[in-house]
C-alpha cells in the first residue's frame, strides 16, 4: 500500500498491497468524472467545482445552527440562549469522534485513489464507517450517564442547568447520527463527491429549520423542541448518505466485507484524524473555558458570546467549506506526485479564502448591532454582542489562510504539522490568552483573546507551510522546482 508507509515524496509499497482494484481511476460513470476533476481539470475551475457545493452545504449548516438560537431568542429568555451555548462543546465532542474518520479516513482515501489503490481505499472507507459508528454510540452513552457533572464542569449555573440538561439529553440521544453524518460527509468528499455530500448535509439542515418553529413555538416545546429538530435533521442526513452507498454510487465502498483489523490502516487514519480532532476537542475545551470566564462576568455575557459565535461561524464555515472542497484535490495530487498542481491549488485557495474572510469581516464590523438584534433585543446582550463581534471581525481577513493550510497538511498526511496547528489555535494561543488577558484587562481581555489567537496561529501555519514547501522543492528535480515556484 503506497500510502501506508509514506516517507516524504517517495512512497513505498508494502507486500500484498498496491494493486489497483477494479473500478478505480477510469472506472464507470460518475466516478470517472470525479477522477477527471481531481487529476486534470484546471485548478481554479476544479477548486470551485468541488468547493462551491461544500460551501453551500456549510452555509446551510450555519443557518440551521443559528435557527435554534433565533427561535429560542424569540422566547426572550437569555438563560435559554446561554444554555444552548453551554451545551455546544459537549455536543462537539461527540462530533469529534466522527471527525477523526471524516478527516483521517478522507485523507488516506484520497491519497490511495490518487495512487491507484482502489481495494485499499475500500478497506480504509469500511474501517472509517464502522469504527466511527461504534465510537460515536459509546461516547453519546457516556455523555448521557454523566450529564449532570458534565454540565456543571462546562459552566451551567443555577439559572441555566434545567434548560441545558433538557436540551443536551435529546441531542445526546441522537449523538450517533450527529457523529456519523460528519464521518460519512467526509468520506464522500474524499472521492470528490462534494455535491452528494452537500445534498446530505443540506437535507438534514433544511428539515431542522422547518421543524424548529413548529416544535419551539407552535407546539410550545421550547428548548426541547430545538433539540428534537436537530436530532431528526441529523437522522435524515445520515439516512441519505447510507442510501448513496447502498446504491453503490461511490468510487469506494463501506461494505462490512472490507472491514479489517490490520493496524496499518488505523495508524494512517489516526495519525491525521486524531491531531485534526484534537483541534475540535481543544475548541470544545476553549468554549468551556470561554463560558466559565464569561460566567464570571454574568450569564448575559455567555448569551452575547454565544450569539456572536453562531453569527461569525458563517465566515468560518464558508472558508472551511472551501478548504474541504480542496482536500481531495490536494490529497490526490500528492498521492500521484503532481506537486505543481498541489501548490497551484494551495495558492488559489489561500487567495480566495482571504477575500471571503475580508468581505465577512467588513460586513460583521459595520453591521454588528443589526446582526445581534436579529436574535435578541435585550439591550445588555446587544451592547456586549457588538463589542465581541467587532473584535472577532478584525482577524477574519487572515483566518482563511490558516484553514486552507491546516486542511492541506491533513490531506498530505503530515501528522506533525497538522497536530501543531490544531493544538496551536486553542491550546497554545487561545486558552492561555483568555486566562491571562481576562485577569489583566477584565472583559476587554476576554473579548480580544480569540482574534489574538487567530492571528498568531495563522502566522505559525504559514511558517510550517514554507518549511514544507522548501523541503519538497529541495527533493524535486530542477524542472519541477521551476513549475511549482
Write a structural description.
By secondary structure, the protein is mainly α. It contains 17 helices and no strands. The chain has helices at 29-39, 43-73, 78-114, 118-145, 147-153, 161-173, 175-190, 194-218, 223-246, 263-297, 299-335, 339-366, 368-375, 379-393, 396-411, 415-474, 478-484. Helix 2 runs antiparallel to helix 3 and helix 13 (368-375) packs across helix 14 (379-393). The longest helix is centred in the C-terminal third of the chain and has 60 residues, at 415-474. The model is unreliable at 1-29 and 478-485 (pLDDT under 50).
Structural topology:
Blueprint (H helix, E strand, L loop, with lengths): L28 H11 L3 H31 L4 H37 L3 H28 L1 H7 L7 H13 L1 H16 L3 H25 L4 H24 L16 H35 L1 H37 L3 H28 L1 H8 L3 H15 L2 H16 L3 H60 L3 H7 L1
Helix pairs in contact: 2-3, 2-8, 2-9, 2-11, 3-4, 3-6, 3-7, 3-10, 3-11, 4-6, 4-7, 5-6, 6-9, 7-8, 7-9, 8-9, 10-11, 10-16, 11-12, 11-14, 11-15, 12-14, 12-15, 12-17, 13-14, 14-16, 15-16
Averaging pLDDT over every residue, what do you get? 79
Question: Strand-residue fraction?
Answer: under 5%
The class by helix and strand makeup works out as mainly alpha
Low-confidence stretches: 1-29, 478-485
Instruction: Report helical residue fraction.
Output: over 70%
For the secondary structure, the number of strands is 0
Please outline what is shown here.
By secondary structure, the chain is mainly alpha-helical. The protein is 82% helix and 0% strand. The chain is built from 17 helices and no strands.
Amino acid at each position: 500500500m503506497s500510502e501506508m508507509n509514506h516517507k516524504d515524496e517517495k512512497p513505498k509499497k508494502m507486500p500484498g498491497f498496491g494493486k489497483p482494484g477494479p473500478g478505480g481511476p477510469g472506472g464507470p460513470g460518475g466516478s470517472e468524472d470525479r477522477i477527471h476533476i481531481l487529476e486534470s481539470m484546471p485548478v481554479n475551475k476544479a477548486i470551485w467545482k468541488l468547493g462551491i457545493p461544500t460551501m453551500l452545504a456549510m452555509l446551510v449548516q450555519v443557518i440551521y445552527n443559528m435557527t435554534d438560537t433565533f427561535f429560542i431568542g424569540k422566547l426572550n429568555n437569555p438563560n435559554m440562549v446561554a444554555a444552548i451555548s453551554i451545551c455546544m462543546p459537549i455536543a462537539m465532542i461527540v462530533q469529534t469522534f466522527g471527525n477523526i474518520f471524516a478527516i483521517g479516513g478522507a485523507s488516506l482515501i484520497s491519497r490511495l485513489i490518487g495512487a491507484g489503490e482502489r481495494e485499499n481505499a475500500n478497506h480504509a472507507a469500511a474501517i472509517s464507517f464502522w469504527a466511527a459508528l461504534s465510537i460515536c454510540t459509546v461516547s453519546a452513552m457516556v455523555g448521557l450517564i454523566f450529564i449532570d457533572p458534565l454540565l456543571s464542569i462546562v459552566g451551567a449555573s443555577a439559572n441555566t442547568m434545567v434548560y441545558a440538561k433538557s436540551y443536551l439529553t435529546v441531542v445526546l440521544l441522537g449523538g450517533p447520527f450527529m457523529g456519523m453524518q460528519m464521518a460519512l460527509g467526509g468520506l464522500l468528499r474524499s472521492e470528490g463527491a462534494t455535491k452528494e455530500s452537500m445534498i446530505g448535509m443540506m437535507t438534514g439542515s433544511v428539515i431542522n429549520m422547518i421543524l424548529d418553529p413548529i416544535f419551539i413555538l407552535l407546539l410550545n416545546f421550547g428548548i426541547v423542541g430545538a433539540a428534537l429538530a436537530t436530532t431528526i435533521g441529523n437522522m435524515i442526513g445520515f439516512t441519505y448518505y447510507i442510501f448513496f452507498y447502498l446504491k453503490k454510487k461511490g468510487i469506494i465502498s463501506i461494505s462490512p466485507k472490507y472491514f479489517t483489523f490490520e493496524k496499518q490502516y488505523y495508524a494512517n487514519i489516526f495519525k491525521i484524524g486524531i491531531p485534526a480532532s484534537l483541534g475540535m476537542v481543544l475548541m470544545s475545551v476553549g468554549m468551556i473555558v470561554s463560558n466559565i470566564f464569561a460566567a464570571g462576568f454574568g450569564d448575559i455575557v455567555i448569551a452575547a458570546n454565544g450569539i456572536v459565535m453562531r453569527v461569525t461561524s458563517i465566515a468560518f464555515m464558508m472558508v472551511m467549506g472551501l478548504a474541504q472542497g480542496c482536500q481531495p484535490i490536494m490529497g490526490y495530487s500528492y498521492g500521484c506526485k503532481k506537486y505543481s498542481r498541489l501548490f497551484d491549488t494551495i495558492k488559489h485557495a489561500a487567495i480566495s479564502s482571504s477575500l471571503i474572510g475580508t468581505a465577512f469581516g467588513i460586513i460583521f464590523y459595520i453591521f454588528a448591532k443589526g446582526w445581534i438584534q436579529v436574535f435578541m433585543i435585550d439591550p445588555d446582550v446587544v451592547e456586549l454582542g457588538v463589542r465581541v463581534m467587532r473584535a472577532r471581525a478584525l482577524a477574519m481577513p487572515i483566518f482563511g489562510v490558516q484553514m486552507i493550510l491546516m486542511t492541506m497538511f491533513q490531506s498530505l498526511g503530515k501528522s506533525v504539522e497538522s497536530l501543531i496547528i490544531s493544538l496551536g489555535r486553542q491550546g497554545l494561543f487561545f486558552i492561555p490568552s483568555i486566562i491571562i488577558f481576562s485577569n489583566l484587562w477584565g472583559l476587554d481581555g476576554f473579548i480580544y483573546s480569540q482574534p489574538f489567537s487567530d492571528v498568531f496561529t495563522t502566522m505559525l501555519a504559514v511558517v510550517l507551510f514554507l518549511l514544507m514547501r522548501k523541503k519538497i522543492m529541495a527533493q524535486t528535480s530542477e524542472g519541477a522546482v521551476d513549475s511549482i515556484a
